[in-house]
Amino acid sequence: MSVSPVPEFVAFSPAGPGDAGRIAALHADSWRRHYRGAYADAYLDGDLLTERTAVWSARLASPAGTATILAESGGRLAGFVHVVLDADPRWGSLVDNLHVEHSVHRSGIGTELMAYAARAVLARAASPALYLWVLEQNTRAQGFYQACGGVRVEKGIAAAPLGDPALLNGSPGKFRMSWPDATRLASATAPPD
What we know:
Elements: E1 11-14, H1 20-34, H2 41-45, H3 48-61, E2 66-73, E3 76-88, E4 92-100, H4 109-124, E5 130-135, H5 139-147, E6 151-157, E7 173-179, H6 183-186
Parallel strand pairs: 4-5
Antiparallel strand pairs: 1-2, 2-3, 3-4, 5-7, 6-7
Helix pairs in contact: 1-3
């Protein structure tokens, strides 16, 4: 795997309601690249952008109990992370989304976004624990999360988008990755993502 050049300047900032469209576009592109095979092609090739825009508009209009951090470079969105604070009494806060623009994969942006997520958890959540779900087929992401200190703790079945099982291809697996204490992750810097 080749490493992309690190963007000269990356700014990290909280997302606001006006960012919903940009986040949705990156989210839809990332799902199309990485969820194909798990999610139905008709769903991924359909009007995913409109659906994701509605999701992000709602999330950012009522952000209580969440943290959404953007990474921007050269005037464009390079990545984002969305955390649901104290989502689970056992596992802690949920990294519900982490997506990095394809052209800057392996530049360190994903690692920095995970560190920002961990800092948000430590500053605002009751528990220092952090977790996420990753598709079983997404071995590259699994390797990244393991490099960030995450431990695979259990396997489940991926939830259907929009609650509609017809939008899945069968019963794709997913793994829970866990960080019992986000303190170490909060100070993480590259290895490249």
